[in-house]
Amino acid sequence: MSGASEALDKVEVRLKWDPSPLGEAPRHLDIIAGTYSVDDPYGRPVYLVHYDSRSPDGTINMARHSQTGMGFGFVEVMVLELDRLASAYGRVVVGVAIHQNGRTRTFRDISNAGVVVVHGYRQLIVDDFARVADATAATVAEFTRDSTGAWGIRETIRGFDSDPVLFTAEMGDPQR
To answer: Cys bridge to 6: 2, 35, 77, 164, which one at CB 3.0-4.6 A?
Structure first.
């Protein structure tokens, strides 16, 4: 986790991938964030944010969404305003899931995939999913609030073999 002197306020998670080859079904990846309460930081998420939702208070939302990738850099962006997140929340886990449209796809099947987490102009995490090439979903980062209320980050690149719905139930469990 980053130290208190590096407290995070507003971060972005950016995702890129190339479109499907001609004649193949579109490849669709999604950034997903699970927000956990201070009272139960490893239980079920209080709420999820993804392409079709935002946090109830607007502190976590999708600034950009793609269903096909474009090959033009980072085409999906989630913004997390951690400094505005209510004190009832002490942990946020962010991951990426591949939609499974008729055939199982893994990160190995996704051309030029990559994720970056940025704070201002500083890159905190950069990954190309090579470590989780055989997975259908992966966690990327865990944000936690310390006793002073400052937010820090920990890289958590872990692969999962689940569809996006099941992934949302599993992603916050450190034992998975």
So the answer is: 2
